[in-house]
Amino acid sequence: MGRKVIIATKNKGKAKEFEALFSKFNLEVLTLLDIENAPDVEETGATFEENAVLKAEAISRFTRSIVVADDSGLVVDALDGRPGIYSARYAGEEKNDEANINKLLSELKDVQQEERTARFYCALAVAIPEEETLVVAGKCEGLIMNERRGTNGFGYDPVFYVPSLEQTMAELSSEQKNSISHRANALKNLQPLIERIFAKR
């Protein structure tokens, strides 16, 4: 298997974040864009963790490799946790960042700024052939703005305000985002597991 890990995503923005975060491990990082005929995995889980495990295990079975899959999204307190696991397709089956943000803002239009608390949440699953799948999680707390700010990032980044930095996710540089994001925090929790996994190889 070698020092190779497959990230179960075709999302170029997400792939770039993972590559940056994995660079310190001296691993060859591939994504589903590098895997021919990779199966489309239906995300039928009820939680971020269940969906991450479904993806990681299916791609690991297909490739016979170590696979990291994430399921992540936005959890808004005033909306009882929505969009949650439906974050990517909140406005409809076609993934559309602009439409998703529009729907979110319209649902929050009568909610006061201080009550617009939210967090990005990321569950990461590591599937290893013939071993138990490992799961960790990370989050990043913030508030939902009532207008977009910034042009970096993707998804809900332009309306997700990080109070400690006084900027939205989309106003941060990729280095800043990679130090505080839900995915970065999940990866920090994953780091000891990855070190342990690859120490044996």
From TrEMBL:
Residues binding substrate, per UniProt: 9-14, 72, 154-157, 177, 182-183
InterPro entries attached to this UniProt entry: dITP/XTP_pyrophosphatase, ITPase-like_fam, RdgB/HAM1
Active site, renumbered: 71 (proton acceptor)
Residues that bind Mg(2+): 42, 71
Top-level class of the enzyme under EC nomenclature: hydrolase
Superkingdom to which the source organism belongs: Bacteria
Record's catalysed reaction(s): XTP + H2O = XMP + diphosphate + H(+); ITP + H2O = IMP + diphosphate + H(+); dITP + H2O = dIMP + diphosphate + H(+)
Cofactor annotation remark: Binds 1 Mg(2+) ion per subunit.
A single MF term (Gene Ontology): ITP diphosphatase activity
Keyword Nucleotide-binding: yes
Keywords: Hydrolase, Magnesium, Metal-binding, Nucleotide metabolism, Nucleotide-binding
Needed cofactors: Mg(2+)
Entry-linked Pfam families: Ham1p_like
EC numbers for this chain: 3.6.1.66
Membership in a protein family: Belongs to the HAM1 NTPase family.
Function description: Pyrophosphatase that catalyzes the hydrolysis of nucleoside triphosphates to their monophosphate derivatives, with a high preference for the non-canonical purine nucleotides XTP (xanthosine triphosphate), dITP (deoxyinosine triphosphate) and ITP. Seems to function as a house-cleaning enzyme that removes non-canonical purine nucleotides from the nucleotide pool, thus preventing their incorporation into DNA/RNA and avoiding chromosomal lesions.
Subunit structure: Homodimer.
NCBIfam families, alphabetized: PRK14822.1 (NF011397), RdgB/HAM1 family non-canonical purine NTP pyrophosphatase (TIGR00042)
Name of this chain's protein: dITP/XTP pyrophosphatase
Organism per entry: Lederbergia graminis
